[in-house]
Design goal:
homodimer, alpha/beta
């Protein structure tokens, strides 16, 4: 089994862009290839969710192969809703680990802001099981996670203020990240009094509609680079009525268990964490499922500042989905870009002495979860 | 490196179905799992192209994991237009070869007949590069391959009769396949006088709009099963204006080269072939690119009956895309189902003494091509 490392990263600014999906993917890809020293690429894997309905564009793999002038190398797209990027990265990792390729370009992207919001919401809902009654009666993602937040607050005594603290932290990080979608200062008061989306989730508790792309070059031939030391992936039910406990996302717990086991590590070994905060509530659940805090205590950890820079485990120093933005197919790769930058020592909101980083990417309401662990070069 | 074999196959009837995409995928999956003796499954890979725009359904991997009661095993969808199924199979093969999993369920499907034809055509066109001028001016897939057919006839002296011979052969095979979409007898005269789609391609020269699913169980732990002995994949330009020679599909030649090299075989070693006859013209080009006949002579081979049962290389004994049907994501897997049945000795239009089989799956106008080789158990 080979040593697999990320040797190049690239990312467009997230937010509203005039670029097409193809152009966004190309920009991030070219940056990553230059950053990696322009290696010979053996395959391209693209993470994307809604290229068909929103951009009228599939076959993204072969479009990139052609446009980048890479001859006839194999390529494909992977889809797992908001985990499409993480899934693409995992395929590259597994195939490189096995020696099937030497260098893989992994790129994720989405183009969302050019379409009417109701069409975007319809397309995002393709990430539910549409044969289920809840989907037919109009459940949306904010609707789902609003219910989750109400249940969590009821079970454990958290309040809307705890949700706001997550959004506030991530916005403050995003202000230092030149590629993030939202860079304006805010306050807990503004967050708490913002327009309600689905009670108790207000505007700042929900990740935005975004354009953007992110790319990484992954290799098994380089001695340098940020090493990938574990890859966990699990599935879970996409149907609300089948969920045993709404305050839990078992696929995340399972993916983390796999990753810790592969790396022979535990939460305490992780120095910096990017996780899937599609909603503020989801961040609190994720820090529990990933083993950083006991079940039902994540909100207290947030209140104590333990997920801040300087705390036990700095979370979403990129700004997270909430404020960096959430161009869906890009998200899983963008998280890895931030972790790689952290372990290189060049990240926005750099965590000092960061040696081990984790990226966790969620798809659907809990349909997919991926956990990857990374180690600083030479660490 | 492990021995990888197909140990179970399943397939719904192709054509117009009242089942949802989810139900079609489940039916084929359950058949394949039963056929394989209900092994413990480690991962699911789904090939699908238009689940979003046509069925409003993505996250097919996790839906199947949940519905089949497989706990939290990893899953995903792969997309490469009409090669989505072949790409899904290749991922399973590569990961099993490397020992990453022991048993993978690969299932492909599409639901197309419930939607107005113009919407289907729009969605199929997501398999072109929509930033290109040709796409903006209204090029469709029948339009593309109509131009190809005209050029081929001009260059090599083929006629519409040669195209009709391909369609006639495949219909005759489909009549023996209980799962095929079209089972009515036809004649060369009927084919030649049928409604024109894009000159010179008439109705019988074009694959239909279909619903359906196909599944295979692939394992690296079984001593039995039909062995997968090679997997080739290549990309090509999706833009007509960038194609050097319209009578060629270089990705197919390259994928075949890889497969022959891996298996240390040549065309002469192959006893039975399923290839991607999205149009009758495409079959003639494919038998040339795969090395069975010299460039520009495929149409003569068809005329001589060399691609018939009993000829040098029986092609599309399932009925092919033209008459078995073409539910896009299912096609790459359905081809493999037919080859496995041929090598088991249980296929419709069984080829006697078939030892080695090939399946070739195309995506877009030449954006992706995959070639897999299979060997009879014990051969």
């Amino acid at each position: 089994m080979s040593r697999v490392a990320v040797t190049g990263v690239g990312m467009t600014r997230f937010g509203k862009s005039n670029d097409s999906l193809k152009t966004l993917l190309l920009k991030a890809s070219r940056q990553a290839l230059i950053d990696a020293g322009r290696p010979k690429v053996d395959a391209i894997i693209v993470g994307n969710f809604m290229g068909g309905p929103l951009a009228q564009q599939e076959i993204l793999g072969s479009i990139l192969v052609t446009e980048l002038g890479l001859g006839h190398i194999p390529s494909m797209k992977t889809e797992g809703a908001c985990a499409s990027g993480g899934i693409a990265f995992r395929q590259a990792y597994q195939l490189l680990k096995a020696g099937a390729y030497k260098t893989v370009l992994v790129v994720g992207g989405e183009k969302m802001t050019h379409i009417q919001t109701n069409h975007v919401i319809s397309a995002v809902n393709h990430a539910m099981d549409n044969s289920s009654m809840e989907s037919k009666t109009g459940l949306t993602f904010p609707g789902y996670f609003g219910v989750v937040a109400n249940r969590y607050m009821y079970e454990y005594g958290a309040t809307k203020s705890h949700l706001a603290m997550v959004a506030f932290k991530n916005r403050n990080y995003a202000r230092q990240n030149p590629l993030s979608q939202f860079q304006a200062a805010t306050s807990l008061e503004e967050i708490l009094s913002a327009r309600m989306i689905t009670d108790p989730l207000g505007l700042f508790d929900c990740s935005p509609i975004s354009d953007g792309a992110a790319a990484v070059v992954v290799q098994n031939v380089a001695r340098e680079g940020v090493e990938v030391i574990a890859s966990g992936q699990a599935s879970g039910t996409p149907i609300m009525q089948e969920v045993d406990d709404l305050t839990r996302i078992p696929a995340t717990e399972e993916a983390a268990k796999q990753a810790y086991s592969q790396a022979a590590m535990e939460p305490n070994d992780v120095d910096v964490l990017e996780l899937h905060d599609c909603f503020s509530m989801t961040e609190i659940i994720a820090i529990e499922e990933l083993g950083f805090f006991e079940r039902g205590t994540g909100f207290e950890a947030v209140e104590k500042g333990l997920t801040n820079h300087g705390g036990d485990i700095p979370v979403n120093t990129s700004g997270g989905l909430l404020s960096k933005g959430h161009p869906i197919g890009a998200t899983g790769i963008a998280q890895i870009v931030q972790i790689v930058e952290q372990l290189r020592g060049t990240a926005p909101n750099q965590v000092e002495h960061a040696r081990v980083g984790m990226a966790q990417n969620l798809g659907g309401t809990g349909a997919y979860s991926l956990v990857h662990l990374f180690k600083k070069e030479g660490a």
